[in-house]
Amino acid sequence: MTTCTPADTTTAEEQTRLSAVRLLAGNPVTVVSAIVLAVLVVVAITAQWIAPFGVNDIDVPNALRPPGGEHWFGTDELGRDIFSRVLVAIQASLRVAVVSVAFAVVVGVTIGLIASYRGGWLDTVVMRVVDVMFAFPVLLLALAVVAILGPGVTTTILAIGSVYTPIFARVARASTLSVRVEPFVQVSRTMGTGHLYMLGRHILPNIAGPLIVQTSLSLAFAILSEAALSFLGLGIQPPQPSLGRMIFDSQGFVTLAWWMAVFPGAAIVVTVLAFNLLGDGLRDVLDPKQRTMIEARRRSG
Amino acid sequence: MADPVLGVRDLRVRIGRREIVRGISFDVARDQTLGIVGESGSGKSMTVLAATGLLDAPGAVISGTSTLAGAADSAPAQLVGASARLLREVHGGRIGFVFQDPGTSLNPLLTVERQITESLEAHRNMTRQQARGRALELLEAVGLPQPQTRLNSYPHQLSGGQRQRVMIAIALACDPELLIADEPTTSLDVTTQAQIIDLVRDLQRDFGTAVVWISHDLGVIGQVADDVTVLQDGQAVEQAPVLDVFDNPQQPYTRELLNARPLIGAPGPPPADSEAPVLLRVEGLDVRFPVTTPVGRSTVHAVKDLSFQIRHGTTLGLVGESGSGKSTVAASLTGLVKPDAGAASLDGLGVRGAAVKALRRRISLVFQDPFSSLNPRTRAGAAIGEPLWVHRLAKGKQARQKRVAELLELVGLPAAFASRYPHELSGGQRQRVSIARALATEPDLLILDESTASLDVSVQARVLDLLADLQRELNLTYLFIGHDLAVIQRMSHDVLVMRDGEAVEYRPAAQLFESPEQDYTRALLAAVPPARPRSALPG
Fold first, then answer.
1. ipTM of the complex
2. Which residues in chain B (318-357) have CB-CB distances under 8 A to chain A?
3. Long-range contacts at B243-251 (CB < 8 A, ≥ 24 apart)
4. Is 0.80 topped by the overall pTM?
5. Residues of chain A contacting B421 with CB distance shorter than 8 Å
6. Does the structure show a pLDDT above 70 at A53?
7. To which CATH superfamily is domain A37-299 assigned?
8. Among residues A84, A97, A124, B242, which one has the fewest Cβ atoms lying within 10 Å of its Cβ?
9. Which architecture characterizes domain B278-535 according to CATH?
């Protein structure tokens, strides 16, 4: 029996594991945005307990107080504490964003995966429907859903989710198209593997990279969309605080109380920026093409 | 030696903590070809890229000198650490490059004419019209048929060999003093390889260019080189004229490379029992593919009425150039494409029919490319275990792990390799994992579709040994598909030569190599680099 000669084994021995986590940790921007997001998530989960005031505690004598010792972010026209309201609003925003994007991921990836894996007429029909959904501007589609179902948190989630579904369908389809013709998929087919096993074992892990990146970027846009819908009065309804609504309410007081608009606005900017930067960092590490290129470069002599 | 065109002294390349090129010196003179030979990872490309100022790896530290001799109107140029401006003048103008993959080194969006005239306009200040005339001359010189119409072709309209000819035309456009050819024939069929070798030699005679030819195959180097540098782990272990290297190799590594060359006339496999029952019988196989082109739909007749049979424990070598339909035969046997006509039976059972899944167990496939035929996100152990899982062959996780360890041992890999990802394995190791995966179901028939074609010759020799051992021990039956008759001879009991989807010659291997009947078979035989270097031949 032939065995490996030294020349056959050395290259693998010298290969260091290209761990995705290690590559991510090497990028300071990604690390900072991940930390910011972790803080935001903790804040969102514990908002009710760490908020110093009740979100709807009206205190008219202290209305429109500038930021200071007691009210860190100041108070609004009814004397409500803006810091507390921002904390709770972040919770609402994140919940809407996460649930709606999760909905979009599950539905969109399933559609895209099956359409491209099955191919043929199914692919054509499904993707034309997706094209039609793409033709509507995001807010218009969301407005239509809200108009039909009436405003509220559930409707907002449905609206945003259905807006992002076609994006995930497209990303999943495009990646699947390139993976399903790879030789390792063909070898697996010649063994007689079942479709579910094939999708779960060979296709999904190899298209996960772009999907994770898209998820991160979509979360950012979902937060923006939620804020926009709430600003228009179609998203989260008062008395529950929301970032968009708070900015809307501040309009009449902009010259008197800048803090009413700035702090909710800053919360949106920080959250969206963190998700976007994390997405960029993930893209560099997870994009299979970039990874392959890095690996190929390391290997070539 | 006459004044060298390129003189390299003590060249070193360090990336991070690893020294990849460790003090290499060489000279190459006008009219001469220097062959640089070594396995992948030996630093041969790195050496030449660093010596010509093309190395573009982040964090690479280059030391040593590389001097391009002065020409009529220019002073000698020091290329290591040269300014971007000097390098721009030298590249394309005085040094031409031909790379391995003619598919990706040409810009798919530009016509052949544009790609050739680009450097002429940059370096020689020619007008569009002059450059076009020169491009036409060059295409004629590199032997491209109908050069006038080819000027307006796009790369995808050319075959691999034609693209490589265009690459050579581009490299020679400005009459460079030095031509760098980095594995220029590695991704080509042996027949095309022979043509490119002849072409470069003819051009060298006409233009007097100095050539540096990099290859992993000492057989190819023997056909082109005057001097040879053998690289191992970034060091030049042997530097000598080509005849000395072939006749009197000083280093064991050089001897290993010499012995790894596939040669016509090498002993074939041990004779098999000619009374053994027939395992696979294929009759009247016919495959057509629909193709949609801008001008309309047409069909490609990939396999035309092909019949053959393979006996238990023997190997049928299926040989042909790319486009001959040999891979389509494998694909239709494994159910990847649907044949239009014909029947195949395994031990008398039809390959198409209800019991497909059971039959899949009995036919396994090993593909060419060791890099893409393993799922990058699956460990080697899981890849090998997959067919066991699919066919419920080993009950429970532990039984499966035990079987995977057995299979790894069978292909000569340590059991610990089960936990490695494909990118942690070398090309040869990946191909061993693919073979282990194919053997997991204890198949009767193993289809090897160019399974060793993209490996270094030295690795290929070891994988071929492994396959021969496995066949003897497990009484396996192979359908061995290849383009290199020397490799086919080493493995096969019977040989089927295919061209344009048809069988050209189908006979026992011994007879076929003894007295080939068809011109096409003789052409394939002649294309294999011979045992002796060309310079040893009279005339």
1. 0.70
2. 334-336, 356-357
3. B243/B533, B243/B535, B243/B536, B245/B218, B246/B222, B246/B532, B246/B533, B246/B536
4. no
5. 17
6. yes
7. MetI-like (1.10.3720.10)
8. A124
9. 3-Layer(aba) Sandwich (3.40)
